[in-house]
Write a structure and sequence with these properties.
By secondary structure, the chain is mostly helical. The protein is about 70% helix and about 0% strand. Helix 3 crosses helix 12. The longest helix is centred in the N-terminal third of the chain and has 43 residues. It starts with a helix and ends in a 7-residue tail after the last helix.
Length: about 300
C-alpha cells in the first residue's frame, strides 16, 4: 500500500513537471509580450517620457500629474464617453441581431450553408477594407446609401454628410461595426443552438407551447452561458474600437468620433508624449477590467462563487 502511494506521488510529480514544461513557452510569451509591457506602461505613466529623447527635456518622475491632467482633458473625456456610447448601443443590438440570424440559419433547409457563409464573410474581411468600402458607401455625392434613401423617399431624404456631420458620424460608424461583427456572434449562438436537445422542443410542442413560449422558456435559458460569453467578448471588442475610426474619420470631425485607443496612439506616436499616453492606456485598462468583472458578477448563476 505504501509502495503504491509512493508511485502515485512520483507519477503526479512527473505529470506536474511535464505540464509546467509544456506551459513554459506560453508563460514566457505572456510574460514578455503582455505582463512586462503593461508593468512598464504603468511605470511610464508616472513620468514625462517622450518617444524621442530630448536632452533639454530629460525623463523625470512626475507622480500623478498625468492622471490628474487626464480628468481635465476634454478630448480624453469625449473619447471615453464615445466608447461608452458605442458599447451601450452596439453590444445589445449586435447580440440581438446575432441571435436572430443564428435562429434563422439554424434550419435544415437546402442551401443554408451558403447563407451562413454570406453572413460570416464580413468577419473574415479586413477591417481596413471594410472601412474603405463603407466610406465609399457613405459618400454624400455618389454613395449608395444616400442614393438608396433618396430613391425610397422620392427625394425627401438625403443626401447626408455621414462622416463629416458631428451628429451622424458616430451612428454611421456604429452601423458599419454592427454589420461587420454580427457574423462572429452569430456563429457562437449557432453552436449554442445546436447543443440544445431537440427533445425539449418536442415536449413543449406536446404541451401546446407556442413558438414565443418555446423561445422564452427553452431557447434563452439554454443559451444563458453562450449569451454571457457573447456579451462580455463583444463589450471588450467594442471598447477596443480603433481601426474603423482611424480609417474613416481619424477621430473627426471636431473629435466627434474620437475613441480612447485612437487618442492614446495619437498622443504617444503623433505628439510623442509616451508618458501621458501610458496614463491613458492604464486608466482605460482599469475601466474595461471593472466593467468585465461587473458583467461576470451580475450574470453569474445563483449559488456560484
Amino acid at each position: 500500500m505504501k509502495k503504491d502511494t509512493v508511485k502515485l506521488s512520483t507519477y503526479r510529480r512527473k505529470e506536474s513537471q511535464l505540464a509546467w514544461l509544456f506551459s513554459t513557452p506560453a508563460i514566457l510569451l505572456l510574460l514578455f509580450f503582455l505582463i512586462v509591457p503593461f508593468v512598464w506602461a504603468i511605470w511610464m505613466s508616472f513620468t514625462n517620457m517622450r518617444l524621442i529623447p530630448n536632452p533639454n527635456l530629460p525623463t523625470e518622475f512626475v507622480g500623478f500629474r498625468n492622471y490628474i491632467r487626464l480628468f481635465s482633458d476634454d478630448v480624453f473625456i469625449k473619447a471615453i464617453l464615445n466608447n461608452f456610447y458605442f458599447v451601450v448601443v452596439v453590444v445589445p443590438l449586435q447580440t440581438a441581431f446575432a441571435l436572430g440570424l443564428a435562429m434563422l440559419i439554424n434550419q435544415e433547409l437546402k442551401g443554408m450553408n451558403v447563407y451562413r457563409t454570406i453572413y460570416f464573410s464580413p468577419v473574415v474581411t479586413s477591417m481596413t477594407v471594410v472601412s474603405i468600402v463603407w466610406t465609399l458607401l457613405y459618400n454624400p455625392g455618389e454613395g449608395l446609401i444616400n442614393a438608396f434613401l433618396q430613391t425610397i423617399s422620392f427625394g425627401a431624404l438625403g443626401p447626408y454628410n455621414w462622416l463629416t456631420d458631428t451628429k451622424l458620424v458616430f451612428p454611421a460608424i456604429m452601423l458599419m461595426s454592427i454589420w461587420q461583427g454580427v457574423g462572429f456572434q452569430m456563429v457562437i449562438f449557432l453552436a449554442g443552438l445546436q447543443e440544445i436537445p431537440a427533445s425539449l422542443y418536442e415536449a413543449a410542442q406536446v404541451d401546446g407551447a407556442s413558438g414565443w413560449q418555446q423561445f422564452v422558456n427553452i431557447t434563452l435559458p439554454q443559451l444563458r452561458n453562450t449569451t454571457i460569453f457573447v456579451v462580455i467578448s463583444t463589450t471588450i471588442l467594442a471598447f477596443k474600437l480603433f481601426d474603423q475610426v482611424k480609417v474613416m474619420t481619424n477621430g473627426g470631425p471636431q473629435n466627434a468620433s474620437m475613441t480612447t485607443m485612437l487618442y492614446a496612439i495619437e498622443t504617444g506616436w503623433g505628439r510623442l508624449k509616451v508618458g501621458y499616453a501610458s496614463a491613458i492606456t492604464v486608466v482605460f485598462f482599469i475601466i474595461v477590467l471593472i466593467i468585465s468583472v461587473a458583467q461576470r458578477f451580475l450574470t453569474r448563476e445563483k449559488g456560484t462563487a
